[in-house]
Specification:
131 residues, 1 helix, mainly beta
Length: 131
């Protein structure tokens, strides 16, 4: 990991893959990841960690299965939201979006519990940024 500033615009321009996060930095034991997203991710949950989202561009929707029922939050550009640990959720971006996520290093993109992973979803712990 470099100790130099990272331009998020330049980092986002360096790849085209959807649902395939790039690690742009680390804070203690946490990855700072960016991703381009469009269409649907999968229902999944992270049993031991919250998941932080910041919408850099576009609009992200996150469906949540909570004790009170299912709901969807809509995050416009500049909005942040944290999915509590253990909460099943499904991000989707009908028109595409760029997002920043903050989660413990090594956290899989499909969580600890998930539906079958379709081909368009990169089930990884994030990729190194190649600038």
């Amino acid at each position: 990991m470099s100790n130099d500033p990272v331009s998020l615009d330049k980092a986002l321009a360096s790849f085209d893959a959807l649902w395939s996060p790039r690690i742009v930095n680390r804070v203690n034991d946490y990855d700072v990841r960016i991703a381009k997203v469009e269409g649907e991710h999968i229902w999944h949950a992270h049993d031991d960690t919250d998941e932080f989202f910041l919408v850099l561009d576009g609009e992200l929707h996150i469906s949540l299965r909570e004790p009170a029922g299912e709901r969807t939050v809509t995050l416009p550009q500049g909005a942040v939201f944290t999915v509590p640990k253990g909460t099943e959720h499904r991000p989707y971006a009908p028109s595409g979006a760029s997002i920043l996520m903050f989660e413990p290093a090594g956290t899989p993109t499909v969580g600890d519990r998930h539906d079958e992973v379709p081909d368009h979803v990169d089930a990884t712990t994030g990729h190194a940024l190649d600038l």
